[in-house]
């Protein structure tokens, strides 16, 4: 774990087989401060890719670099250190239903080593302000729409002061206006906090709005990795079909 790698996240020839080969020679990288989208049909291995970044899954072969560190053979202790820097916002939000929005955020804040009881209100207010949810401080998750729950989940993730956030389908089941708000929030976090992020999505609009680069997975392989702006130049029939449809995949 001592070597420092140039890219913040990098997959080098990653293979993973379950019932069938899910990831086949997957290569891509994410630089610090950059947003990379991962797109592809259902079952193509997008969530499996995120699980490798979190160290929940290990590749059958190849190398996974996260936070400039090779985590391929990392121990649980080493992974815990990485997970302080890299956090994931789950689709469900994974909020505690019996706790208010404030308590959900405090839960994450209290895990921080530099947690200070004295300025906790200020930090919670700052985080709620950042995600535009100050008015919902004392609400319970059940009172909030799916989109707002995702925003609370993002605020809770930010409480840990991560360097990098992984989003798994942040706009699924969210109405278009809230999707737009979430996209704005993701852009703001990138600009104001220089957060690195990886966004798994079926949402073409979101991809164009927030991503610098995109990884397209198809039948286990990366069929495109490059700037979003050049995606249309790919002559892969699958990508052409995707662009022609111009709709949620
Ligand atoms: N822990 C696991 N054990 C066995 N098979 C798994 C495991 N995790 C994922 N898979 C399989 O790997 C394949 C890819 O799953 P994954 O969840 O990454 O798809 P996805 O691209 O995220 O799809 P969706 O868009 O539907 O979320 C699926 O066939 C899934 O059943
Ligand atoms: Mg998935």
Note the gap between the termini.
Answer: 38 Å
What's the tally of helices? 8
Q: How is the biggest beta sheet arranged?
A: 6 strands, mixed
**How large is the share of residues in beta strands?**
15-25%
Shape annotation: globular
**Ligand types:** adenosine-5'-triphosphate, magnesium ion
Order of SSEs: EEEHEEHEHHHEHEHEEH
Which stretches of 5+ consecutive residues score pLDDT under 50? none
**What is the number of beta strands?**
10
Major sheet: order of its strands?
A: 6-7-8-3-9-10
CATH topology: Rossmann fold
**Radius of gyration over all CA atoms, rounded:** 18 Å
How many discrete structural domains?
1
Looking at CATH, the homologous superfamily is P-loop containing nucleotide triphosphate hydrolases
Helical content band: 25-40%
CATH architecture: 3-Layer(aba) Sandwich
Characteristic terms for this protein:
binds magnesium ion, 6-stranded mixed sheet, 4-stranded antiparallel sheet, binds adenosine-5'-triphosphate, Rossmann fold
Could you characterize what this model shows?
By secondary structure, the protein is α/β, with parallel strands linked by helices. The protein has one domain (9-245): Rossmann fold (3-Layer(aba) Sandwich), CATH 3.40.50. The chain is built from eight helices and ten strands. It has helices at 46-54, 76-85, 101-109, 120-130, 146-159, 176-193, 204-210, 237-245; strands at residues 9-17, 21-30, 35-39, 61-66, 69-70, 86-89, 164-168, 196-200, 213-218, 221-227. It has a six-stranded mixed β-sheet with strand order 6-7-8-3-9-10, sandwiched between helices. The chain has a four-stranded antiparallel β-sheet with strand order 2-1-4-5, with helices on one face. A hairpin with a 3-residue loop joins β1 and β2 (21-30). α3 (101-109) runs parallel beside α5 (146-159), α4 (120-130) packs across α5 and α5 runs parallel beside α6. The longest helix is centred in the C-terminal third of the chain and has 18 residues, at 176-193. The radius of gyration is 18 Å and the shape is globular. 37% of the residues are buried. The mean pLDDT is 90. Residues 18, 22, 40, 42-48 line the site of adenosine-5'-triphosphate.
